[in-house]
Specification:
- The protein is an alpha/beta fold and 483 residues long.
- It has helices at residues 12-24, 35-43, 61-71, 86-94, 107-119, 143-155, 172-181, 203-208, 225-228, 244-256, 282-287, 293-299, 316-329, 339-347, 353-367, 375-382, 390-393, 403-416, 427-446, 451-458, 462-472, and strands spanning 4-8, 28-32, 49-53, 77-81, 99-102, 162-165, 190-194, 233-237, 258-259, 268-269, 273-278, 302-305, 336-337, 372-373.
- Mean pLDDT is 81; it is low at 121-135, 384-399 and 479-483.
- The chain starts with a strand and ends in an 11-residue tail after the last helix.
- The chain has 21 helices and 14 strands.
- The chain is globular, with a radius of gyration of 25 Å.
């Protein structure tokens, strides 16, 4: 006997598409445009799974979900929404939804999720406190951010170790803090430590603490970050800068769940969730003998790559509004960015990513008396003629530029972002590595996700392309998309 899927959406086109797709997949489908009919079916014991939009004419699905979970706790509910924010994904998870899909969605993925939900119903996650639903810790509605929201929502009620990768300024600590604040360890401490900011010979003491007299200058016993984070989350930023000795001790903690202080002998049990982050290519560090391979696989249980801001430029207006609101709360004068200014900002490469954007917005709010920020002001602040940059020239009438010229122009902008200083060492390998992701993404986008065509376009073997897609975490764009 086939399963019955209850579909609720006030958009007739979406109801038609879902009815046809789910029927072809072998399910019995019942469709409605309102929450009242959906609730009548559910309360009567009908249906094996629910697919529902959030906003309907008579009731919001988030208000209906608690009643559904109370009446039929084992009924999987898949939530769809065009309100594609981090909080939408989190609310869907904490209200008891099996999964969340942002619109537009992939029908193949939807059917796969339904099959998984029917075979392994998800347990009800713990509810978040109502006051934790206010605020927006992560901002952006781009496809890249949607996938991050979905991964985080699934991780909230677990203790799985997370490895966050991404360029400096992409918000790795913000993601780690969001995972803590909305997860089951939210009542425990969140402790962050930056490996690159601590002298190498003190990292072990910082992590594990030390006993009195353990080394010269150790006048008293000191607690380490593991002890401080007990019952909560320990965020290890720039994990690639951890010295080998400390890596060995960290691996032992992850394997055995206990550690000893520097100079101590008694093992101490630990209960912390580890979230690590890096802007380095750790696989390259492994090949260079700078990072333990076994530690990498212990930390990389769930990999999450944060995209650079230039890859999600459509999020810039939302981010600007968010930073303006933050600035107003701190007493800065409100500003409005005109459309030309925003378009120019979308074209800029943002080598410092979201952190650079936030600093720019705050600087403009503090220093400029104008209520409206114009294109001219943005050009002046960025200290470069963005209209001559390779990104701005793409698609313009007379703007032809070779790849070499585009790279040279971008590298000039990148170097200038450091002022009188130089970028971190390892630039050659870092540039080659970072160019791979946008190159493969562009090829897949141009070929509508056809990997055979993309491999031919790139001049790669198809298996090589597949391997790179997996290693780099490239989102494969598909041509078949639902409403």
């Amino acid at each position: 006997m086939s399963a019955t899927i209850l579909v609720a959406d006030d958009d007739a086109a979406i109801r038609t598409v879902l009815n046809q797709a789910l029927s072809r997949a072998g399910y019995d489908v019942r469709i409605t445009s309102n929450a009242a009919t959906l609730w009548r079916w559910i309360s009567a014991g009908e249906g094996d799974l629910v697919v529902t939009d959030v906003v309907m004419p008579d009731e919001n699905a988030f208000d209906l979900l608690p009643r559904i979970k109370k009446a039929r706790p084992d009924l999987p509910v898949l939530v769809m929404s065009a309100q594609n924010t981090f909080m939408t994904a989190i609310r869907a998870s904490e209200k008891g939804a099996y999964d969340y899909l942002p619109k537009p969605f992939d029908l193949t993925e939807l059917i796969a999720i339904i099959g998984r939900a029917l075979s392994e119903p998800k347990k009800k996650p713990a509810r978040l406190d109502d006051d934790m639903q206010d605020g927006m810790p992560l901002v952006g509605r781009s496809a890249a951010m949607q996938e991050i929201y979905r991964v985080l929502a699934r991780l909230m009620q677990t203790d799985l170790t997370l490895m966050i990768t991404g360029e400096s300024g992409t918000g790795k600590e913000l993601v780690a803090k969001a995972l803590h604040d909305y997860g089951k360890r939210r009542n425990g401490p969140f402790v962050a430590i930056n490996m690159a900011a601590i002298p190498r010979d003190l990292i072990e003491s910082e992590l594990f603490g030390h006993e009195k007299g353990a080394f010269t200058g150790a006048q008293t016993r000191s607690t380490g970050r593991f002890e401080q984070a007990e019952g909560g989350t320990l965020f290890l930023d720039e994990i690639g800068d951890m010295p080998m000795d400390a890596q060995t001790r960290l691996l032992r903690v992850l394997q055995q769940g206990e550690y000893t202080t520097v100079g101590g002998r008694t093992p101490i049990r630990t209960d912390v969730r580890i979230v690590a982050a890096t802007n380095k290519d750790l696989k390259q560090s492994i090949n260079q003998g700078l990072f333990r391979e076994d530690l990498y696989y212990r930390l990389n249980v769930v990999p999450l790559r944060l995209p650079p801001l230039r890859d999600r430029a459509e999020d810039i207006p939302d981010l600007v509004r968010h930073f303006i609101q933050q600035g107003e709360k701190e007493g800065l004068d409100a500003k409005r960015f005109d459309q030309e200014a925003l378009e120019l900002m979308k074209a800029y490469a943002w080598p410092g990513n979201v952190r650079e954007l936030e600093n720019l917005v705050r600087r403009l709010m503090a220093l400029y008396p104008q209520d409206v920020i114009s294109r001219e002001i943005i050009e002046q602040e960025l200290r470069s003629d963005v209209s001559d940059s390779p990104i701005a020239k793409v698609g313009t009438a007379g703007g032809s530029m070779t790849i070499a010229q585009a790279v040279e122009e971008n590298m000039r902008t990148y170097f200038s972002s450091f002022g009188d200083n130089l970028p971190p060492p390892g630039l050659y390998d870092r540039v080659l590595t970072e160019m791979e992701y946008p190159l493969i993404l562009a090829a897949l986008t141009a070929t509508r996700g056809n990997q055979i065509k993309a491999a031919d376009l790139l001049g790669l073997n198809r298996n090589t392309l597949r391997k790179k897609i997996r290693e780099l975490g490239v989102s494969v764009y598909r041509s078949s998309r639902g409403a």
